Amino acid sequence: MKSKITSYFLPVCTGTKPKAVSVAACFFAAFFSLLSTSAFAQNGKTTAGSDNVLYAELAKAPHKAVARTNPLATDPDAIAAGRKLFGMHCAECHGETAEGGHGSKKGPSLRAQEVQEATPGTLFWVLTNGVVRRGMPVWSKLPDAQRWQLVAFVKSLGTGS
Amino acid sequence: MTANHSILRRMAYKASLASPFVVLLLIIVSIPAAAQESPYFVTYDHYLEEPGSLEVEYFSTFGTQRGGNDFHSYWAEFEYGATAWWTTELYLDGQTTFGESTLFTGFRWENRIRLLKGEHIINPVLYAEYEQISEADKIIKEVEGHDVEEDHAVPNADSSHGHNHELELKLLLSSTHNGWNFAINPLAVKNLTGGDPWEFGYAIGASRPLALKASANRCNFCRENFIAGIEMYGGLGDRYSFGLPETSHYLAPVVAWNLPSDWTIRLSPGFGLNDNSHRFLLRWGLSHEFPGFGGAIARMFGGH
């Protein structure tokens, strides 16, 4: 999938212009080529049934991760702190009520049965590793404790609205 | 009466100077949302911009200069998360050398691509940057080859005539464990205009939030909003004379204050480690993240 802009830069890239111009043109050609590829990938993300593909990621968690328990499960502040963190980092894609986002940044509902039935360890693993090829970033930049607080909040949601 | 007028005029003048800062401060502490940005100025960790988010950043460096005039360099960054594995960024550089002039010194276009899907013990990210900058550029975003303090002593009137097209490649290796982030960035630079050899450099950083658990309430001054660390960066010569001598090296404590309003404030005093280095570099920066920027642009053009 080659964009019009890529087509514009490619002849200059392979042409006999001064070296610096050629290199710059190659750089731009590669950039727009990547951008069009990424736009395609993002469009693919929002097709019907893509939520199921994302939920399927939960099944990929290794046994060791699945078995982990939330060390903050009994912390009385964990859910409130998780709610705050959710509003700051997750609501943009998953919606304010965690029922799923809309438009180009659609994240799946976290109230879905697949998520609510997943173990805390599984949710922690997905948060840590992301689903990078499908738009979910790696969240290991949040310390472990904050990711467990997020898990506590998500598990507290239940499947109701 | 005249004295009162004079006092009032002075107060009005002071208020006019202070009001933009007050407004900025109010904006910073009041808008809801949040960033979790690293405190580094030179080193990169493996975390990319969230997909569809735009981060607008302003950075400054004040540098002392032996054999020339001190300077204040600055740059703006527009960092966009194209996907969860690719971040692209545009830099606009400038500098003011005291007693000389103020210059726009060029632009840089940076791309970071995450190489592995999930989180690993060491996470590699490929970094490629194209630079079109004048020799008067002083932002010192990296040290490469045999970069030394003396390079920046050349008056703006002379250095602004030389222009470089450079390709810069870095391998960003980063790991986060128990709240600590450790990052190592080896770099290689090729000047595309001249016959200069490949030049090399490095940056190393370590940082940690002051608290690992988030507090239950929204707060500006909570310990978890502050990330402190240290970074070290310098040159490694070129392909004909590789090594630590005859180049400059810096050590700089760094701190970032991530506000719940999606603003981040960074500060870093840097110290030259040898005679080839600037004695002191004071860096500061302010950035703001616009989540959903990509979606807003898509909607503007009729997308979803």
Explain how this protein is built.
The complex is a heterodimer of chains A (161) and B (304). By secondary structure, chain A is mainly alpha-helical. Chain A folds into two domains: 4-44; 48-157, Cytochrome c-like domain (Cytochrome Bc1 Complex, Chain D, domain 2). Chain A has nine helices and no strands. The longest helix of chain A is centred in the N-terminal third of the chain and has 27 residues, at 19-45. Chain A is elongated, with a radius of gyration of 21 Å. The relative contact order of chain A is 0.14. Chain B has two domains: 1-30; 34-300, Beta Barrel (Porin), CATH 2.40.160. Chain B has a twelve-stranded antiparallel β-barrel. In chain B, a hairpin with a 2-residue loop joins strand 6 (163-177) and strand 7. Chain B is globular. Chains A and B meet through helix 2, helix 5 and helix 9 of A and strand 2, strand 4, strand 5, strand 6 and helix 3 of B.
Note the run of SSEs of chain B as H and E.
HEEEEEHEEEEEEEH
Radius of gyration of chain B: 21 Å
Which strands sit side by side, in order, in the main sheet of chain B? Answer: 1-2-3-4-5-6-7-8-9-10-11-12
> Low-confidence parts of chain B, pLDDT < 50 over ≥5 residues?
19-33
Contiguous runs where pLDDT drops below 50 for at least 5 residues of chain A: 36-48
Shape of chain A from CA axes?
Answer: elongated
Q: Quote the CATH topology of the largest domain in chain B.
A: Porin
Q: Please identify which CATH superfamily of the largest domain in chain B we are dealing with.
A: monomeric porin ompg
List the helices and strands and how they pair.
The complex is a heterodimer of chains A (161) and B (304).
Chain A lengths: L3 H11 L4 H27 L4 H7 L6 H4 L11 H12 L1 H4 L18 H4 L3 H10 L14 H14 L4
Helix pairs in contact in A: 1-2, 5-9, 8-9
Chain B lengths: L1 H29 L23 E10 L7 E13 L2 E12 L4 E13 L8 E12 L21 H4 L3 E15 L2 E12 L7 E11 L16 E13 L10 E10 L4 E10 L7 E11 L2 H8 L4
Antiparallel strand pairs in B: 1-2, 1-12, 2-3, 3-4, 4-5, 5-6, 6-7, 7-8, 8-9, 9-10, 10-11, 11-12
